[in-house]
Every structure is written in C-alpha cells, then in structure tokens.
Amino acid sequence: MTQQPVNHENDGHYGDVDCSVCKEMLRNLERFADMLQRTRTHSAQWLTVDDVAAELKLSKSIVYRIIRNGEMTAINVVETGGRMAQKGHYRVKREWLDKYVESKTTLPIPAPAKRLSSPRLRIQHVKNYLGL
Description:
By secondary structure, the chain is mainly alpha-helical. Among the domains are: about 20-45; about 50-105, no CATH class. Helices cover about 40% and strands about 5% of the residues. The chain has four helices and three strands. The protein has helices at about 20-45, 50-55, 60-70, 95-105; strands spanning about 45, 75, 90-95. Helix 2 (about 50-55) packs across helix 3. The longest helix has 26 residues, at about 20-45. The termini are far apart.
C-alpha cells in the first residue's frame, strides 16, 4: 500500500497542525533547535587562542605570550610532560578572558592636587667660575 503525499496548502488547516507527519516534524525541529542552542552555549564557554586574538584584536603570538607569562589563565589540552604547550593547544574559558580584560582596565588619571599658595623662594643665580 503506497502512501499519498499530503497537500496542506488547500486543506484549510494552515497554521494548525493536524497531521501526524507535521506534528512529528515540528517535534524534531524543536529538538534540533534545542540541540543547537546547547551546542552554542557549551562551545561559547571555551575559546581558542584564535578566538581570543580576534576578540581582543591582538596577534596570536601576543596572546600566547600573555598565557605563557601567566597573565591570563588557560588550560593545556595536550599532555606535554610539564613543558610549555605548543601552539594551538590552549583553551581559555570565557570568564577567564573577562577577568583578564577587567584586570587590564585602566582608570582615569586623577586631577593634580591643588597646591596651597605659598610664596616662592627665589634662588639667586650664581655664576659658575669652575666650568662645572
């Protein structure tokens, strides 16, 4: 027994979901959308050096230097036997990047303190006979 294709354009149910095929398709689309959202959320937590460099508008070598100097927290995803990881093996959590940026935020220079008005001392000009 062959199943006839369902034409929903003229059956008067546009906007309503009455057929089981459509209901199943909508359930699958919702599951797929949930999976995509979870993937985006999870993958956005971990950044590569390329991601960090692009976000901070720095070169990758400077990001590697920042990590190696211990200024930014990062993990090494490859076992190196205690040595520094080769390029491409670091991952940075979003919160660690935010913490680094916060630590580098500069504060405005405070206005110079006003001096109390006091008479200025005049130093006499002494001629230098010794040529010093």
